[in-house]
Amino acid sequence: MQSTPTATKERVATIDILRGVSLLGILLVNMFAFSTPVPYVDLKTYFSTPLDISYHKWLDVLVQGSFYPLFAMLFGYGLAMQQEKAERLGNSFYKLSVKRLVVLFIIGLLHVLLLWWGDILMMYAFCGLIAISLIRMKPQFLLAIGLLFYGAINGLVALLAYIASLVKASSDTFEYADIQAVQSAIKAYGGGSWMDAFQQRLTDASVQFSPTMWIMALFTILPFMLIGAAAAKWKLIESAKNHLSKWIVTAVVLIVLGIILKMLPYTMDRTYFLDSIQMQFGGPLLAVGYASAIILICCIPYATKILLPFAMAGRMSLTVYLLESLVCTLIFYHFGLGLYGKLGLDTITWLVLGIYAILAVFSMFWLLIFRQGPLESLWKHITYGKFSEKRGNI
């Protein structure tokens, strides 16, 4: 029997909404990297005006480090759904999944070379190839492995950070910046040609995709994919209406706890240990809290219809993600509007909301005609040998 991609009628609206919200959160975080020399500065000390400092603080607490775990869990959720469907139809899951992930890796590589150095697709494809080798396991084992992988390395990092924090740090410990690298990035992106930006992009990518980062992905991205796969096997999202009280408790507890942990570097004297707790534990806890809250909202009658723009963006997540990069490079780089380093965070934040709104509306109109986004259709064609049919079904 020939394999086919998951049909529209089989999709769960809540998953698409979660994915769409994740895209907004990811863009809010990525906007720092589009507009500032992120690899070479500490953002907590980079901004100087009170308004920028305030905006960064709340973006750091509410957004930073909380949406890549959510997106990774959704990625794992999708892999598990595809695996279960393939087994139900008697198809080979692994052959097509490897092909899909290799194609995704290539798309990510082109993303880096042509648009932006901060791509996540290659890391997701890399971790996905490992995840599919474990996907047949029972959900409790997937959850245990995910928690063990994440807890082991990140617990060690937190311990080392605590030891480092025992040494009294001077007030300017965190105020670091590679001045030469910062100036090079500003010159290339803010005033250079596309080729200047390309050369700088390769330099930035060498930091983003260093061997250490690939290894760290196994302990920061792969675990969330496995946790997401376990959730899919338990059908936690599909059965949410049967366990509302548990979802309410989970949402309230984890959102409160996550925000408390993420506020630590701001409410106490900042140390490496508090930074580690904020990012490595506060971020993921808040991610699950956000997901739980969104799942609860989607259980309210007509909520999924009200949140339709998020769902449409979520159904076209690959297209929307890459369009975000295209639009942002045209806004900030010199070969576009040349606004790199020239806008305050308040303006940038509202700009992000505007960009996302436009892309969500675009997704809605596109899916009135087609069943998938253009890049999803291309991805499907390469994997399955067929393009998406017309006449979408919103």
TrEMBL record:
The chain crosses the membrane at residues 21-41, 61-80, 116-135, 142-164, 213-232, 244-264, 284-304, 316-336, 348-370. Pfam families: DUF418. The keyword Membrane applies. The keyword Membrane applies. Keywords: Membrane, Transmembrane, Transmembrane helix. Residues 232-386 form the DUF418 domain. It comes from the Bacteria. This is DUF418 domain-containing protein. It comes from Rummeliibacillus stabekisii.
